[in-house]
What does this fold into?
Amino acid sequence: MSSETDPTGPRPSLHRTWTLTTLKEQGIRVLLFGCALVSVATTFGIIGILIWETGLFFSQVSLGAFLGDTVWAPQSIDDPHFGIWPLACGTFLVAGVAGLIGLPMGLLAALYLSEYASERSRSILKPILEVLAGIPSIVFGYFGLVFVTPYVLQPIFMDGLGIDVGPFNVLSAGIVVGIMIIPTISSLSEDVLRSVPQGLREAGLALGSTKFDVSVRIILPAALSGIIAAFLLALSRAIGETMAVTIAAGSQPDLTLNVFRPVETMTAYIVLISLGEAAEGSIEKRSLYVVAMSLFLITLAMNIVARFILRRYRNVYQ
Amino acid sequence: MMDSVITTDPHLARRHRWGTLFEWVCKLATWACLLILAIMIVGIVINGRQHLNWSFLTSFDSVNHPEQAGIKAGIWGTFWLILLMACFSIPVGIGAAVYLEEYARPNRLTRLIQLNILNLAGVPSIVYGILGMTVFGHMFGLFGNAPPREAVWALPFGQKVLTGAFTLSLLILPVVIISTQEALRTVPASLRHSSLALGATQWQTIRFQVLPAAMPGILTGIILAVSRAVGESAPLIMVGALSYVHQTPGNISSVTDFFTNPHGIIEAPFDVFTAMPLIIYNWASQSDPIYQSLAAAGIVVLLAVLLLMNTAAVVIRQRFQNWIRW
It folds into this structure.
């Protein structure tokens, strides 16, 4: 009997020994964890900076003046006003028009892709929507300013109906942002529609429903919560949209509901202030953080609600 | 037989008509997207055609002679931005995704990080601009005011290429992480198990089995994320990129300059910069028609770059798909 086969002889320890390899493994693990923490640090950075500067802003301007005033004129030297409503109104007006264009178009496209389209049409249409999603927002802004306003809106409303339409207006910005959010809505909604069990479709058809009845009366209600989530995500994109509205909607912080007039959105205000030379620590510069904070909170709330609805929806059909 | 079915329900014909009508409405709405895309691209090309020539790519912006203006500073600015951004965001993004997919236990902290990444992906880009301006541009004012633009290796970075690159990195990081995670999830667990069973450590398994297998998916996701950054302008305006620049970062303005002017490579990250979308924005916001057509020509160049990147993504996806079979 040789010692190698002796079962009572020395055996490799089952405990972990610290060799160079295990040390390296641990090192890599820690390093990768560090990478994951960068995203957490980003969030803390954003929230920390916004809270800090917002605090400094509200030490100079009261919350009542921020939420109660209806004039936004932070640059004015003798009579500054800090009412957020003109900017909020501009933002929601553009997002509203974008929603009126983008939501139905996106939903119809999703219905077509999931219920009607042949494999061949899908293979053409899906990449087209992806291309549309990849076009930078500055291109849409240019399109709104140089094509939509002079060639679509002004002939229809100014020459046709006698309504004054300026070069910058809410409608053109809303239309191009609406086009921008079509791919978001259609791809998210299509995923949701496709995850409705096939059995529901077959049951409806077996009971004598037409395809229209199945799509609109069975599939759509079944997928409703997921579609609402898609709408929310798309609208939050429209609210955070910057360059397209900065170019097409103008820079006039008016409290108006007239879609033919120029407005200033929150995002456009931030861009225009940063283009100018606002001194560090001035109230003008701080107002930028407050507007960004409002924007951040609005979009974050919409995103969280949408994710919550989507998660609930996924649980229903699993 | 058919006749008897239809006559038993007088509404059926009408319901079918409604159905056909609705199908056509859906079809129209979808194909309208193609129409809009076509109108947009054709219109922009027509608007910018007079400037689409070689000198547009090789000359700087010009106030006195707008007819000779070009986008050279923007092309090189975007090049450096994207290069530096990729150096930072690709390793960190893949690292974070590998940690979350391969190492992290499904506990509270992991769920929190995951949720956090999803929410970051929905934060408007302009908010990232504010973050970049405050953290990289001013460094919270810890090191005093921004140094003069001649100063190399100075803190805070100020309005330099590096500030823009770091800001864009944070912007695309969530997208890179999410798409890498999706790619890692498509790698079957059996591959990991067999590698571990053969005695490979966890990192060896990831490095030599999982990452190569997931590479096509990872690369596609990264290219799409990077192409998003190419068209991004709002955060760059926030961090103080200029729209009117008469030089390229590090004075490198051709491929040969990399060899004749190696010092410029070190200087470039600390130089002032502009980017293609910013020049386009600057032109688009002037009312003179010549600037409108310059902007259109700039957009054509920008879209051409994006098209090139997207084609690369498609080619990579199809090439690698044939390599790997489970």
In short: The two ends of chain B are 51 Å apart (CA to CA).
